Amino acid sequence: xxxxxxxxxxxxxxxxxxxxxxERFEAHMLxxxxxxREVKAGREGRALAESLRxxxxxxxxxRIRATIAAAPAPRRRRMRVRMPALLGVAATLAALLAAxxxxxxxxxxxxQPAPITAAVASYRVGPxxxxxxxxxxxxxxxxxxxxxxxxxxxxxxxxxxxxxxxDPVGRLVVLLQAVRPFPQARGAGHQPGRAAWTAEVDxxxxxxxxxxxxxxxxxxDQAEVLAAAQxxxxx
Amino acid sequence: xxxxKRWVRPSIRVEVAEEARVGMESDEEFLRLTLxxxxxxxxxxxxxxxxxxxxxxxxxxxxxxxWAAWSSGRRPRRVEPWLATICLNAGRDQARRAAIRLExxxxxxxxxxxxxxxxxxxxxxxxxxxxxRALWALPAEQRVAIALMDLGGxxxxxxxxVTGSPRGTVLARVHRGRxxxxxxVVEEVRRDAP
Lengths: 235, 194
What we know:
heterodimer, A: alpha+beta, 2 domains, 9 strands, about 40% helix, about 20% strand, B: mainly alpha, Rna Polymerase Sigma Factor, Chain: A, Arc Repressor Mutant, subunit A, globular
Protein backbone atom coordinates (compact mmCIF):
# COMPACT_ATOMS: atom_id res chain seq x y z
CA UNK A 1 0.00 0.00 0.00
CA UNK A 2 1.29 3.49 -0.94
CA UNK A 3 2.50 5.43 2.11
CA UNK A 4 0.96 8.91 2.05
CA UNK A 5 1.06 10.41 5.57
CA UNK A 6 -0.74 13.64 4.64
CA UNK A 7 -3.63 12.00 2.83
CA UNK A 8 -4.12 9.28 5.41
CA UNK A 9 -3.90 11.70 8.33
CA UNK A 10 -6.45 13.99 6.65
CA UNK A 11 -8.89 11.10 6.21
CA UNK A 12 -8.21 9.84 9.73
CA UNK A 13 -8.88 13.21 11.35
CA UNK A 14 -12.05 13.68 9.32
CA UNK A 15 -13.34 10.30 10.51
CA UNK A 16 -13.31 9.02 6.97
CA UNK A 17 -11.44 5.79 7.66
CA UNK A 18 -13.45 2.65 8.35
CA UNK A 19 -12.98 0.77 11.66
CA UNK A 20 -10.28 -1.60 10.44
CA UNK A 21 -8.20 0.89 8.41
CA UNK A 22 -8.42 3.22 11.40
CA GLU A 23 -7.05 0.59 13.77
CA ARG A 24 -4.27 -0.25 11.32
CA PHE A 25 -3.36 3.40 10.92
CA GLU A 26 -3.33 4.01 14.66
CA ALA A 27 -0.96 1.06 15.11
CA HIS A 28 1.18 2.30 12.24
CA MET A 29 1.32 5.83 13.62
CA LEU A 30 3.09 4.64 16.77
CA UNK A 31 6.07 3.58 14.68
CA UNK A 32 5.95 6.23 11.95
CA UNK A 33 7.22 9.71 12.80
CA UNK A 34 5.87 11.25 9.58
CA UNK A 35 2.32 10.07 10.18
CA UNK A 36 2.50 10.99 13.87
CA ARG A 37 3.58 14.54 13.01
CA GLU A 38 0.86 14.89 10.38
CA VAL A 39 -1.87 13.90 12.80
CA LYS A 40 -0.45 16.05 15.60
CA ALA A 41 -0.20 19.16 13.42
CA GLY A 42 -3.67 18.57 11.99
CA ARG A 43 -5.17 18.21 15.46
CA GLU A 44 -3.50 21.36 16.71
CA GLY A 45 -4.65 23.32 13.68
CA ARG A 46 -8.17 22.04 14.16
CA ALA A 47 -8.15 23.07 17.83
CA LEU A 48 -6.96 26.54 16.85
CA ALA A 49 -9.64 26.88 14.20
CA GLU A 50 -12.33 25.67 16.59
CA SER A 51 -11.24 28.27 19.14
CA LEU A 52 -12.62 30.91 16.75
CA ARG A 53 -16.12 29.49 16.83
CA UNK A 54 -18.57 32.19 17.92
CA UNK A 55 -22.19 32.23 18.91
CA UNK A 56 -24.12 34.70 16.77
CA UNK A 57 -25.06 37.78 18.83
CA UNK A 58 -28.66 38.13 19.93
CA UNK A 59 -29.08 41.43 18.09
CA UNK A 60 -28.22 39.64 14.83
CA UNK A 61 -30.88 37.03 15.55
CA UNK A 62 -33.41 39.82 16.08
CA ARG A 63 -32.23 41.59 12.96
CA ILE A 64 -32.80 38.47 10.84
CA ARG A 65 -36.28 38.05 12.30
CA ALA A 66 -37.09 41.69 11.55
CA THR A 67 -35.65 41.43 8.03
CA ILE A 68 -37.72 38.40 7.11
CA ALA A 69 -40.79 39.95 8.70
CA ALA A 70 -40.29 43.11 6.66
CA ALA A 71 -39.37 41.36 3.41
CA PRO A 72 -42.03 41.52 0.67
CA ALA A 73 -44.68 38.82 0.66
CA PRO A 74 -43.46 35.62 -0.98
CA ARG A 75 -44.54 34.63 -4.46
CA ARG A 76 -44.44 30.96 -3.92
CA ARG A 77 -46.38 29.70 -6.86
CA ARG A 78 -45.30 32.19 -9.49
CA MET A 79 -42.75 29.89 -11.10
CA ARG A 80 -45.17 27.00 -11.19
CA VAL A 81 -47.63 28.55 -13.61
CA ARG A 82 -47.75 26.20 -16.56
CA MET A 83 -46.36 27.33 -19.88
CA PRO A 84 -49.73 27.19 -21.70
CA ALA A 85 -51.11 29.54 -19.06
CA LEU A 86 -48.19 31.92 -19.62
CA LEU A 87 -48.76 31.77 -23.36
CA GLY A 88 -52.41 32.53 -22.74
CA VAL A 89 -51.47 35.51 -20.61
CA ALA A 90 -49.03 36.74 -23.24
CA ALA A 91 -51.55 36.39 -26.04
CA THR A 92 -54.26 38.14 -24.08
CA LEU A 93 -51.86 40.87 -23.02
CA ALA A 94 -50.89 41.43 -26.64
CA ALA A 95 -54.55 41.77 -27.52
CA LEU A 96 -55.11 44.20 -24.67
CA LEU A 97 -52.10 46.27 -25.63
CA ALA A 98 -53.35 46.40 -29.17
CA ALA A 99 -56.77 47.48 -27.91
CA UNK A 100 -55.61 50.69 -26.27
CA UNK A 101 -53.01 52.63 -24.37
CA UNK A 102 -55.05 52.89 -21.18
CA UNK A 103 -54.87 49.16 -20.66
CA UNK A 104 -51.17 49.18 -21.38
CA UNK A 105 -50.60 51.66 -18.60
CA UNK A 106 -52.62 49.59 -16.14
CA UNK A 107 -50.69 46.45 -17.12
CA UNK A 108 -47.45 47.84 -15.63
CA UNK A 109 -48.80 47.36 -12.11
CA UNK A 110 -51.06 48.98 -9.58
CA UNK A 111 -51.40 52.75 -9.73
CA GLN A 112 -49.30 54.17 -6.91
CA PRO A 113 -50.04 57.18 -4.69
CA ALA A 114 -48.56 60.29 -6.30
CA PRO A 115 -45.77 60.83 -3.68
CA ILE A 116 -44.56 57.24 -4.20
CA THR A 117 -44.52 57.59 -7.99
CA ALA A 118 -42.71 60.93 -7.67
CA ALA A 119 -40.19 59.52 -5.18
CA VAL A 120 -39.36 56.60 -7.49
CA ALA A 121 -39.03 58.97 -10.45
CA SER A 122 -36.70 61.25 -8.50
CA TYR A 123 -34.61 58.24 -7.45
CA ARG A 124 -34.16 57.43 -11.14
CA VAL A 125 -33.03 61.00 -11.84
CA GLY A 126 -30.39 60.88 -9.08
CA PRO A 127 -29.03 63.62 -6.77
CA UNK A 128 -29.66 66.31 -9.41
CA UNK A 129 -33.39 65.92 -8.72
CA UNK A 130 -32.94 67.92 -5.49
CA UNK A 131 -31.95 71.49 -4.68
CA UNK A 132 -28.59 71.46 -2.89
CA UNK A 133 -28.75 72.13 0.82
CA UNK A 134 -26.36 72.31 3.71
CA UNK A 135 -28.60 69.97 5.69
CA UNK A 136 -26.43 67.40 7.48
CA UNK A 137 -27.15 63.71 6.82
CA UNK A 138 -28.07 61.50 9.81
CA UNK A 139 -24.74 59.77 9.26
CA UNK A 140 -22.03 59.91 6.62
CA UNK A 141 -21.42 56.17 6.57
CA UNK A 142 -24.11 53.49 6.55
CA UNK A 143 -22.24 50.18 6.48
CA UNK A 144 -20.66 50.13 3.04
CA UNK A 145 -22.80 53.09 1.90
CA UNK A 146 -21.10 56.46 1.79
CA UNK A 147 -22.99 59.75 1.91
CA UNK A 148 -22.70 61.71 -1.35
CA UNK A 149 -25.17 64.58 -1.26
CA UNK A 150 -28.19 66.11 0.44
CA UNK A 151 -30.92 68.21 -1.09
CA UNK A 152 -34.40 69.60 -0.57
CA UNK A 153 -37.47 69.24 -2.75
CA UNK A 154 -41.01 67.93 -2.97
CA UNK A 155 -42.55 64.65 -4.00
CA UNK A 156 -46.06 65.41 -5.25
CA UNK A 157 -46.43 68.31 -2.83
CA UNK A 158 -44.84 66.59 0.15
CA UNK A 159 -41.70 68.53 1.23
CA UNK A 160 -38.71 66.24 1.76
CA UNK A 161 -35.02 66.32 2.51
CA UNK A 162 -33.13 63.78 0.39
CA UNK A 163 -29.85 62.22 1.49
CA UNK A 164 -28.09 60.21 -1.22
CA UNK A 165 -25.68 57.39 -0.37
CA UNK A 166 -23.61 55.26 -2.72
CA ASP A 167 -22.20 51.75 -2.36
CA PRO A 168 -18.75 50.65 -3.63
CA VAL A 169 -20.11 49.66 -7.04
CA GLY A 170 -22.00 52.91 -7.56
CA ARG A 171 -25.55 51.89 -6.65
CA LEU A 172 -27.53 54.58 -4.88
CA VAL A 173 -29.65 54.41 -1.76
CA VAL A 174 -31.71 57.52 -1.10
CA LEU A 175 -33.21 58.46 2.25
CA LEU A 176 -36.18 60.81 2.02
CA GLN A 177 -37.21 62.47 5.28
CA ALA A 178 -40.53 64.27 5.55
CA VAL A 179 -42.50 66.10 8.23
CA ARG A 180 -45.61 63.99 7.68
CA PRO A 181 -46.00 60.29 6.79
CA PHE A 182 -45.64 58.96 3.27
CA PRO A 183 -48.67 57.16 1.83
CA GLN A 184 -48.30 53.40 1.66
CA ALA A 185 -47.38 51.96 -1.73
CA ARG A 186 -49.93 49.64 -3.26
CA GLY A 187 -48.83 46.04 -3.04
CA ALA A 188 -46.62 46.81 -0.02
CA GLY A 189 -45.73 44.11 2.49
CA HIS A 190 -47.00 45.18 5.87
CA GLN A 191 -46.54 43.38 9.15
CA PRO A 192 -49.53 43.41 11.46
CA GLY A 193 -48.91 45.81 14.32
CA ARG A 194 -45.93 47.41 12.62
CA ALA A 195 -45.89 50.77 10.93
CA ALA A 196 -43.03 49.96 8.54
CA TRP A 197 -43.72 48.60 5.08
CA THR A 198 -41.67 47.45 2.10
CA ALA A 199 -42.50 47.37 -1.57
CA GLU A 200 -41.01 47.16 -5.01
CA VAL A 201 -42.17 49.81 -7.46
CA ASP A 202 -40.92 49.76 -11.05
CA UNK A 203 -37.84 47.81 -9.99
CA UNK A 204 -36.99 50.11 -7.08
CA UNK A 205 -36.96 48.64 -3.56
CA UNK A 206 -38.72 50.79 -0.95
CA UNK A 207 -38.70 50.76 2.83
CA UNK A 208 -40.89 53.18 4.71
CA UNK A 209 -41.25 53.86 8.43
CA UNK A 210 -42.71 56.63 10.56
CA UNK A 211 -40.33 56.31 13.51
CA UNK A 212 -38.34 58.17 14.63
CA UNK A 213 -39.48 60.50 11.79
CA UNK A 214 -41.34 59.72 8.56
CA UNK A 215 -38.74 58.29 6.20
CA UNK A 216 -38.69 56.53 2.85
CA UNK A 217 -35.64 54.61 1.66
CA UNK A 218 -35.18 53.78 -2.01
CA UNK A 219 -32.56 51.61 -3.70
CA UNK A 220 -31.84 49.11 -6.44
CA ASP A 221 -30.96 46.33 -4.02
CA GLN A 222 -33.51 45.21 -1.48
CA ALA A 223 -30.91 43.80 0.94
CA GLU A 224 -28.98 47.06 0.82
CA VAL A 225 -32.13 49.07 1.56
CA LEU A 226 -33.10 46.85 4.49
CA ALA A 227 -29.57 46.98 5.89
CA ALA A 228 -29.62 50.78 5.65
CA ALA A 229 -32.99 50.91 7.42
CA GLN A 230 -31.60 48.72 10.17
CA UNK A 231 -28.55 50.90 10.62
CA UNK A 232 -30.68 54.05 10.68
CA UNK A 233 -32.89 52.51 13.34
CA UNK A 234 -36.06 52.97 11.25
CA UNK A 235 -39.04 51.00 12.41
CA UNK B 1 -48.33 41.78 -13.40
CA UNK B 2 -50.88 41.53 -10.63
CA UNK B 3 -53.35 43.59 -12.64
CA UNK B 4 -52.93 41.28 -15.63
CA LYS B 5 -53.68 38.27 -13.51
CA ARG B 6 -56.88 39.85 -12.29
CA TRP B 7 -58.24 40.34 -15.77
CA VAL B 8 -57.18 37.25 -17.60
CA ARG B 9 -57.21 33.88 -15.95
CA PRO B 10 -59.35 32.93 -12.97
CA SER B 11 -57.04 29.97 -12.28
CA ILE B 12 -54.06 32.30 -11.87
CA ARG B 13 -56.04 34.59 -9.58
CA VAL B 14 -56.68 31.66 -7.29
CA GLU B 15 -52.96 30.91 -7.17
CA VAL B 16 -52.14 34.49 -6.27
CA ALA B 17 -54.56 34.34 -3.36
CA GLU B 18 -52.95 31.10 -2.26
CA GLU B 19 -49.50 32.71 -2.41
CA ALA B 20 -50.42 35.26 0.20
CA ARG B 21 -51.87 32.69 2.56
CA VAL B 22 -48.92 30.32 2.24
CA GLY B 23 -46.51 33.22 2.68
CA MET B 24 -47.99 34.31 5.97
CA GLU B 25 -47.78 30.76 7.27
CA SER B 26 -44.33 30.01 6.02
CA ASP B 27 -42.18 32.89 7.29
CA GLU B 28 -42.40 31.56 10.85
CA GLU B 29 -41.73 28.07 9.53
CA PHE B 30 -38.76 29.40 7.57
CA LEU B 31 -37.29 31.07 10.66
CA ARG B 32 -37.98 28.04 12.85
CA LEU B 33 -35.96 25.83 10.49
CA THR B 34 -33.17 28.23 9.55
CA LEU B 35 -32.39 30.24 12.68
CA UNK B 36 -30.73 27.26 14.42
CA UNK B 37 -28.11 27.47 11.65
CA UNK B 38 -27.42 31.16 12.37
CA UNK B 39 -24.18 30.39 14.22
CA UNK B 40 -22.88 28.47 11.22
CA UNK B 41 -23.78 31.28 8.79
CA UNK B 42 -22.34 33.88 11.15
CA UNK B 43 -19.04 32.00 11.53
CA UNK B 44 -18.81 31.52 7.79
CA UNK B 45 -19.62 35.18 7.09
CA UNK B 46 -16.90 36.22 9.53
CA UNK B 47 -14.43 34.40 7.25
CA UNK B 48 -15.55 36.54 4.33
CA UNK B 49 -15.71 39.92 6.03
CA UNK B 50 -13.14 41.17 8.50
CA UNK B 51 -15.45 43.82 9.96
CA UNK B 52 -18.24 42.54 12.17
CA UNK B 53 -20.77 44.93 10.64
CA UNK B 54 -19.97 43.70 7.14
CA UNK B 55 -20.23 40.09 8.28
CA UNK B 56 -23.65 40.78 9.76
CA UNK B 57 -24.75 42.42 6.50
CA UNK B 58 -23.63 39.25 4.72
CA UNK B 59 -25.63 37.10 7.14
CA UNK B 60 -28.68 39.24 6.42
CA UNK B 61 -28.19 38.93 2.69
CA UNK B 62 -27.83 35.16 3.06
CA UNK B 63 -31.13 34.92 4.89
CA UNK B 64 -32.87 37.18 2.38
CA UNK B 65 -31.66 35.03 -0.51
CA UNK B 66 -32.68 31.90 1.36
CA TRP B 67 -36.09 33.42 2.06
CA ALA B 68 -36.53 34.29 -1.63
CA ALA B 69 -35.70 30.70 -2.59
CA TRP B 70 -37.98 29.35 0.13
CA SER B 71 -40.78 31.58 -1.10
CA SER B 72 -40.49 30.14 -4.58
CA GLY B 73 -41.00 26.65 -3.21
CA ARG B 74 -37.47 25.49 -2.41
CA ARG B 75 -37.30 23.08 0.51
CA PRO B 76 -33.75 21.84 1.23
CA ARG B 77 -33.21 18.39 2.66
CA ARG B 78 -30.64 19.77 5.12
CA VAL B 79 -30.72 23.43 6.04
CA GLU B 80 -27.07 23.86 7.09
CA PRO B 81 -25.35 22.99 3.76
CA TRP B 82 -28.05 24.93 1.91
CA LEU B 83 -27.47 28.11 3.90
CA ALA B 84 -23.71 27.61 3.71
CA THR B 85 -23.92 27.45 -0.07
CA ILE B 86 -25.99 30.63 -0.21
CA CYS B 87 -23.63 32.40 2.18
CA LEU B 88 -20.64 31.29 0.13
CA ASN B 89 -22.16 32.67 -3.06
CA ALA B 90 -23.26 35.89 -1.38
CA GLY B 91 -19.79 36.28 0.13
CA ARG B 92 -18.15 35.81 -3.25
CA ASP B 93 -20.51 38.35 -4.80
CA GLN B 94 -19.73 40.78 -2.01
CA ALA B 95 -16.00 40.23 -2.44
CA ARG B 96 -16.27 40.82 -6.17
CA ARG B 97 -18.25 43.99 -5.56
CA ALA B 98 -15.69 45.27 -3.14
CA ALA B 99 -12.89 44.14 -5.47
CA ILE B 100 -11.24 42.27 -2.65
CA ARG B 101 -8.72 39.63 -3.58
CA LEU B 102 -9.44 36.92 -1.06
CA GLU B 103 -6.36 34.99 -2.09
CA UNK B 104 -3.92 37.69 -1.04
CA UNK B 105 -2.02 36.58 2.06
CA UNK B 106 -1.40 39.18 4.69
CA UNK B 107 2.10 40.59 4.86
CA UNK B 108 2.45 39.57 8.49
CA UNK B 109 2.51 35.91 7.57
CA UNK B 110 4.25 35.94 4.23
CA UNK B 111 7.31 33.80 3.54
CA UNK B 112 7.39 31.78 6.71
CA UNK B 113 9.93 28.99 6.62
CA UNK B 114 8.68 25.41 6.31
CA UNK B 115 9.32 22.72 8.84
CA UNK B 116 8.48 24.66 11.99
CA UNK B 117 7.50 22.21 14.71
CA UNK B 118 4.17 22.79 16.33
CA UNK B 119 4.40 23.23 20.08
CA UNK B 120 1.35 22.70 22.21
CA UNK B 121 2.78 24.81 24.98
CA UNK B 122 3.17 27.83 22.73
CA UNK B 123 -0.30 27.41 21.30
CA UNK B 124 -1.73 27.60 24.79
CA UNK B 125 -0.56 31.22 25.04
CA UNK B 126 -2.04 32.30 21.78
CA UNK B 127 -4.57 35.08 21.61
CA UNK B 128 -7.66 34.66 19.46
CA UNK B 129 -6.76 37.71 17.42
CA UNK B 130 -3.58 36.03 16.37
CA UNK B 131 -5.42 32.91 15.27
CA UNK B 132 -7.90 35.04 13.39
CA ARG B 133 -5.11 36.82 11.52
CA ALA B 134 -3.44 33.52 10.73
CA LEU B 135 -6.69 32.13 9.35
CA TRP B 136 -6.97 35.17 7.08
CA ALA B 137 -3.47 34.46 5.80
CA LEU B 138 -4.56 31.09 4.38
CA PRO B 139 -5.60 30.74 0.74
CA ALA B 140 -9.35 31.38 0.41
CA GLU B 141 -10.15 27.74 -0.45
CA GLN B 142 -8.46 26.49 2.70
CA ARG B 143 -10.02 29.18 4.87
CA VAL B 144 -13.51 28.44 3.59
CA ALA B 145 -13.06 24.67 3.93
CA ILE B 146 -11.89 25.10 7.53
CA ALA B 147 -14.77 27.46 8.28
CA LEU B 148 -17.27 24.96 6.94
CA MET B 149 -15.80 21.92 8.71
CA ASP B 150 -14.26 23.18 11.94
CA LEU B 151 -16.51 26.17 12.58
CA GLY B 152 -19.67 25.02 10.84
CA GLY B 153 -19.52 21.33 11.68
CA UNK B 154 -20.27 20.13 8.15
CA UNK B 155 -18.96 16.75 7.01
CA UNK B 156 -16.34 16.45 4.27
CA UNK B 157 -19.05 15.19 1.91
CA UNK B 158 -21.23 18.22 2.67
CA UNK B 159 -18.33 20.62 2.21
CA UNK B 160 -17.56 18.92 -1.11
CA UNK B 161 -21.12 19.53 -2.25
CA VAL B 162 -21.22 23.12 -1.01
CA THR B 163 -17.93 24.07 -2.64
CA GLY B 164 -18.30 21.89 -5.75
CA SER B 165 -14.97 20.19 -5.10
CA PRO B 166 -14.10 16.47 -4.82
CA ARG B 167 -14.10 15.12 -1.28
CA GLY B 168 -10.39 14.27 -1.45
CA THR B 169 -9.63 17.85 -2.40
CA VAL B 170 -11.68 19.12 0.53
CA LEU B 171 -9.83 16.84 2.95
CA ALA B 172 -6.49 17.99 1.58
CA ARG B 173 -7.48 21.68 1.82
CA VAL B 174 -8.68 21.33 5.38
CA HIS B 175 -5.66 19.35 6.50
CA ARG B 176 -3.11 21.61 4.83
CA GLY B 177 -4.96 24.66 6.09
CA ARG B 178 -4.91 23.35 9.66
CA UNK B 179 -1.21 22.57 9.47
CA UNK B 180 -0.39 25.97 8.05
CA UNK B 181 -2.59 27.65 10.63
CA UNK B 182 -0.75 25.92 13.48
CA UNK B 183 2.62 26.71 11.91
CA UNK B 184 1.81 30.38 11.36
CA VAL B 185 0.55 30.81 14.89
CA VAL B 186 3.57 29.16 16.49
CA GLU B 187 5.90 31.22 14.36
CA GLU B 188 4.13 34.41 15.34
CA VAL B 189 4.17 33.52 19.01
CA ARG B 190 7.91 32.88 18.81
CA ARG B 191 8.42 36.17 17.06
CA ASP B 192 6.58 38.02 19.82
CA ALA B 193 8.29 36.13 22.66
CA PRO B 194 10.77 38.20 24.68
